[in-house]
Give the backbone structure.
Amino acid sequence: MKLDFRPYLRRPVILTTFVVFLASLVLVRLGLWQVSRYYQRQQFNDHYLEQTNAEMLDLDAINSDSLDLSGMEYRKVTFRAMPIPGESIVRINQYFQSELGYSLITPYLLRSGSIVFVDRGWIPSSGNETPDDWDVYNQNGVQQIIGLVRIPITVNEPNIDRFWVDFDYSKMQARTDKKVLPIFIQQFPAQGEDTIPPIPQILKVEISEGPHAGYALQWFTFAIILLAGYPFYLRAIK
């Protein structure tokens, strides 16, 4: 029996075949992307649980200048340090109970001579329009700080003087000639002081596998249906 391929060589069929295989490749790629996201989420969960369950790190008891802190995000830390007056900055567009405000960021001088920035919490934007207004939040003397290690990000948007979009290590270091630790500290709330600005914000992290495994199965299923069903389409047009 001689096979007749002429019905499959028509331009509409060739174009449809190309589109089907291209769509299948896109669907498989989307599935693989979701698998990658799934494993990234697992790695984040493992890292977060490892750090939050670790013993509290005392920066006064270690050489923080030589210790690699970049891999310790979410680790609980404590230290005693001197705030640097008049050098606070704010992170804009922060909300507390639906009220617009800032996060007040203050640099602290460690015993080692290095600087660490501390996110002390939320302050209202009303009444804090200029850096001079933040002086009411100044602290005197050595302070005991307890909080979480957080890692700065690279911000493409320019910070305006002391009004920042977010933490950027290069901009943090540019504010002083002293060494700045490549982290910042998100301070924990002090009991009984959660209604007086600056109000420390509690970090809420959801530990779950997320929807990525389900999405991956969905995209792979669509690809299989498309490829498995296409031969029936070719048979119908013969």
